[in-house]
Amino acid sequence: MAKKGGSSSEAKTTRDKAAAAGASAQAAEKRRERTIRIAGAVGVLIVVVAIIGIAVFARATDGGGGSGGRDLPDVNPAAALPTGVLGPESEYPYALPYGEGADTAPVLQLWEDFQCPACAQLELINGSGIKELANTGQVQLLLRPTAFLDRNLRNTSSAEAIGAWGCAVDQGRTAEYSSIVFLNQPAEGAGFTTDELIDFGQQAGIGGPDFDTFSQCVNDGTYLGWAVNSTDVFYQDEVRGTPTGYLNGQELTSAQLADQAELQSLVDAASGN
User: Fold this and answer.
1) Using CB atoms within 10 A of its CB, is residue 158 exposed (0-12), middle (13-18) or buried (19+)?
2) Which residues in 177-208 are b (16+ Cβ under 10 Å) and which e?
3) CA within 20 to 30 Å of 135's CA: 26, 27, 35, 240, which one?
């Protein structure tokens, strides 16, 4: 009997050790998961802070006239506009509406420059989230291009990218093209080449005869006037930098634009939800 009791005690000890080991493993796994979540959150925070810093810096260093690149046209309200772009007499002159937002939905304006590093970061972090708000009809999204960094970088690359984007808009590749341009942003000051801007059209899915039309549009600089006119409004409206958003006229911070959960909350509030 004593022997049998000893075996039971040993078995109990073994079970206790196994349970303790299991509990220890579970605790370690929870610590690991918590560490990953914290690291991820810190990573997002660092990127958001970087967006804020670059956005402020970009506007603060706005300087004199640039040189290099194409000769750009003067401001001209009669300049050709891509399909769907609002005219000079609109409440939002030269803005490009995007998505399915009804007239009663909140208006979300987004000012961006294709040479702006913070804009490229925003596209990477929450570009799809912003467009999803528009595609689901939760906002009237107005895309507002500016080429203000051409002055800083002394080229005309932002204006040329806007013009090429207009050619892609005509081919129904608004979101695809702008995303590709941002994700292929060159080193500061290097600018885009015309060949690159045309190649981005193929990457965006423009093919066949449509690609020939697109290429000719880019080469002809058909929508450079749109870039010039929209940039002029950017200065007239005293927009402080890029990326800059306005929700029903209220300026949003770069951090709010980059955080989809917070942006959704702001949109819900503006909608009365």
Assistant:
1) buried
2) bbbbbbeebeeeeebbeeebbbebbeebebee
3) 240
Q: What is the dihedral angle through the alpha carbons of 145, 152, 223, 82, rounded to the nearest 10 degrees?
A: 0
Angle, alpha carbons 64-69-75 (nearest 5°): 65
Stretch 228-245: mean pLDDT: 97
Kindly state the DSSP code that residue 201 receives in the 8-state scheme. Answer: H
pTM over 0.85, yes/no: no
pLDDT of 108-149, one tens digit each? 999 999 999 999 999 999 999 999 999 999 999 999 999 999
The tokens describing 247, both together, are: 């929700």
Q: Given 3.40.1390.10, 3.40.50.300, 3.20.20.150, 3.40.30.10, which CATH number is that of 34-270?
A: 3.40.30.10
